[in-house]
Amino acid sequence: MTQFPQLFQPLKLKHHTLKNRIIMGSMHTNLEESADGFDALAEFYRHRAENDVALIVTGGISPNASGVLAPKQAMMTSQADVEQHKQITQVVHKAGGKVCMQLLHAGRYGFHPDVVAPSAIQAPISPFKPKALTDKEINQQIKDFINAAVLAEQAGYDGVEIMGSEGYLINQFIAKRTNHRSDRWGGSLENRCRFALEVVKGIRAKLAENFVILFRLSVLDLVEQGSDKTEVLQLAKWLEDAGVDIINTGIGWHEARVPTIAAMVPNAVFSQASQLIKQHVDIPVVAVNRINMPDTAEQILQDGHADLISMARPFLADSAWVNKAQNGKVDEINTCIACNQACLDKVFLGHTASCLVNPVACRETELKFNPAAVVKNVAVIGAGVAGMAAAVYCSLRGHKVSLFEKRSEIGGQVNFAKNIPGKSEFSQLLRYFKTMLAKHNVDIHLHTDVAAEHLTHFDEVIVASGVQPRYPDIPGLEDFIGSKVFDYQQVLSGNVSLMGPSAIVGAGGIGVDVAVFLTEQLSLEDSCSKSDAELYCQQWGIDLTLEHTAGLTQPKVSANSDIYLLQRKAEPIGKNLAKTTGWIHKAHLQQHKVHMLSGVSYQEINQQGLVIEQYGQTRLLEVNNIVICSGQESVIPSWIVQLKQKVHFIGGAAKAAELDAERAIYQAAKIANVI
């Protein structure tokens, strides 16, 4: 008997039965465009289907050349495309799963000069101004959608998901923000929804009743001049009447200045949006966004907020998510921490997606961890993410692994990261590694300062000894270490409590994290009576009830102004932060009135505070605390040179740069795969 009865209850559609309530949501990986990418893509989906995902929705596939997100991206327009896609449908069906292809036309979001839209209004996130479609061209676009669905059926897909959300072409027709037309495709709600409904009706008329149609409906646009509640609910009914089998919930346009999937978004906060639709239609409705563990998914279903749960990134993190949840192995789930670092950030840069916590994702043909031909004794020095990952992956291959850690607990930098607001789910990564280390009988030695003589009986040594904070050369700094000057590890660990104004020296990723940490510490008194969801909606101005148009309301932030974030470089702070999350951190700091100063040189630390020079002007920052976030240096044991075995360096021991858990875990996997 499963502990998640609603999650594993089958769902009967008109002509199909889904084995459980779990959908693997659409996510583009860029394998679609890689050489031999469909071989790798088929293997990627096979791993998920074999582990009992009820329904897989592919990454977005364009119905024509004008609809691609970028040049050379995948389309479904020819028999050659059909043959490629058969690789996916055949492996999924052989594994007992069902699969639908997502039809996505980017509209004005395309990054190429041939973009089209209902009106010639340029998107704030694209350098290209779209051409307004003529009536004839609109009809051709509809035909292209229908043709792509027909080809998808020929390729063996069980259905299609029509992307009508996130600000893509169909959504651009629906919203007044992007549809300024005065013909039959614009103006009234009926006219603005005509394009979406003609696509649905055309596909339904052309294909058999057993061909599943999902429609991703934007419930909360989260942009000015988006859809209001009446419009969203009316469109949902029209879609049902037009022949849609399942309505998937869409949250936020890509240009919205509201975070909807990043780590600081509370789990399942948007299930209320799916409930809004579920109360007004008689077809299944899907809950989405920031659902990453089975207890959360089960609660959504039990509360009646949705009929199905869609997760995308969690299936990058763990292909066996469903199997583990169903068989009482929840602690073995490698949980998505919503960092976006190895998935969305990579895709938007044109690279192949993977996963910070699971480097095997999209590398299923590369990282297989087959049983080792020769079982070895492997020593791993350091139990941060690199060391923990190396120990687990080596043990997967059958090696006998000993993990040495000088501290009293494993985890390394993860123990600091999990205390940062918006990064608490790093604790899930730590839980996962602890579980897997125990499962694979890794011999863990805590409080252990290793020496060369301790390692003579090991065949190979992996050094994952990490990094330590680097202190800059500032006059007076050493006089105040421990009283006024602290490093980021001391602050994030909670070993010191900072009172009064603070200056943060260094504004890279760590400095920004510390700034966020300190702003939240100062806001605790104002927020202690509110839930995470309430605080999130308040900070970003979200109305989950949709009583305000597009779900937007006035943000309310308890601002403080006694934190200084400083950097030497004369460039905007946060310039090199991640593409999909950096803007969120910068917005958070601006909301909390953090003083962000660049082009700074540090003159002196004294009893009064920190003396800086900026653009030729000297000033005293009267601060009680100075937090050092000016980089790291590798920790390399001096006895390493005495070892006669093969030694591998990974993580911070290999390169002291910005803390990079993705690189560390991937290095661990690559080493383990060949030892």
Key terms:
Rossmann fold; 19 helices; 675 residues; 8-stranded parallel beta barrel; 5-stranded parallel β-sheet; TIM Barrel; alpha/beta; FAD/NAD(P)-binding domain
CATH superfamily of the largest domain: Aldolase class I
Low-confidence stretches: none
CATH class identity of the largest domain: Alpha Beta
Instruction: Specify the CATH architecture of the largest domain.
Output: Alpha-Beta Barrel
Quickly give the structural class: alpha/beta
Q: Count of DSSP E strands? A: 27
Beta fraction: 15-25%
Radius of gyration: 26 Å
Shape: globular
Arrangement of strands in the largest sheet: 3-4-5-8-9-10-11-12
Count of helix runs: 19
Taken together, the total number of domains comes to: 3
**Helix content range of the residues, please?**
25-40%
Distance between the termini: 40 Å
Mean pLDDT: 96
**CATH fold descriptor of the largest domain:** TIM Barrel
Task: Tell me about this structure.
Residues 6-331 form the NADH:flavin oxidoreductase/NADH oxidase N-terminal domain. With 675 residues, the protein is of the alpha/beta class. The protein folds into 3 domains: 11-348, Alpha-Beta Barrel (TIM Barrel); 377-468 and 637-674, Rossmann fold; 471-630, FAD/NAD(P)-binding domain, CATH 3.50.50.60. Helices cover 31% and strands 17% of the residues. The protein has 19 helices and 27 strands. The longest helix is centred in the first third of the chain and has 20 residues, at 135-154. The mean pLDDT is 96.
